[in-house]
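On clarity, I found the account of how folds are encoded harder to follow than it need be. An entry of this sort, consisting of the sequence and the corresponding backbone structure tokens, reads as follows:
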Amino acid sequence: MKLKLNNLTVFKVSDKRGWILYRGQNGLEESSVVVEEGSIPFCSCLTYEYQNIDTVVKHLLSVYIDVSYETLKNDAIEFYYSLKKLNMVDIECDDELQQIPSDSMIKEGELTQEIDNSVDLRHIHIELTNICNERCIHCYIPHQDKIKDMDNHTLDKILDEIDNSSSVMSVNISGGEPMLHPRFAEVIKRLQTKHIFVTVFTNLTLLNDEYLELFKNPLTTVQISLYSLKAETHDKITILKGSFDKTFANIKKLLNNNVNVWIACPLMDYNINDSSDVSKWCKENNIKLRIDNDIFAESDCCTQNLLHRPDYQALKVQFKNSLTQQAKAIDIEQIKNGYKTTDRPCGVGLNGVAINSNGDVVPCPGWNCVCGNVKHNTMLDILLHSSAFKKIRYIRYSDFKKCNGCDIRPFCHICFSKNANENNGDYMKITDHNCEITRLYYEALQEYCSEH
């Protein structure tokens, strides 16, 4: 029996805990687990090259000194088969596994797929530049502010911290348009040496042969904004004539080269009726699609871009279409019963940070709640000790008094950034608009369930 970590898996250890993250081709399959302290050695001894199970067990014997060889081998086989079921470990010649009962693979206290509430720096979003060659009508970055590349000193500090981190599992690179930064290729190459997931957020109009080669890395994903399959509609949103032709042609080029591709399609008045075509095309091409049903106000709290929100009736139709395409059974009462007011409404502030092009560390992209700056402190130090982050981590559903007693509260998604940008920075204030689209979704859900 031989085994190794799946090449599309990232394993990291920090502060007596481990995490494993797997992403399949185009992100259509994804799984993650938390590895408790006692089982970390089982993962730490694996590599991305095949090893014989006996070689692995001999290594484990140096850690678990009071355990017999046979007991340790049986425990190891069970543990690794648990990971194999999640696509995290590749196993050859697994005849020995046939005798293991399938319901005993994942042992309590060793692996868990539950939400992890520990605070660690695992995910980083870097705004490499806020300069962009498009002027999208919905963008949360004020167009007058799109003038700054991240400077070399700031960028080097971030990359150095990632190099020295034992916990970082994924890094997003965004803009603006990140390919406009003079060090874009260098940054991607350096991150790819760390065997972590790298996702580039781009309009893809500036793709060249060098970038295409970089994107072929199996742990790298390119997320492209595609607003419609109609050139006129797409260009109307980007305010850049010919942008659709460049973007769509380059998406096809990525697909032809087996690059991991995700599509993002936020809904606006201009494209609300085109989203079903985008969804169908993505499904036909096995592409992961993210449709955002709402757009955010600008990060300076200007709400002018919200004039392009779709009308409510069109949005309800979109909800119903989306539910129909999912074609899965939904238990409304189960959702209601699973809701807890003591839960966090958002995981922001637990295991990730976003860095603006000026070095400011914020909870997530587009929310100018400045928690520190990487020029003065490390990302990890800011995440752990910033008073702003600490305050955000303590927020629970029950803290939103407006929502107490609301019958559709279990179906509502509370977004601090969205709240803040629409309410002059007040991230605890929920807008009437958010309540209305939640009610529309609930009505669409009820209608879907009654018809299916």
Observations:
- The first strand starts at residue 2 and ends at 5.
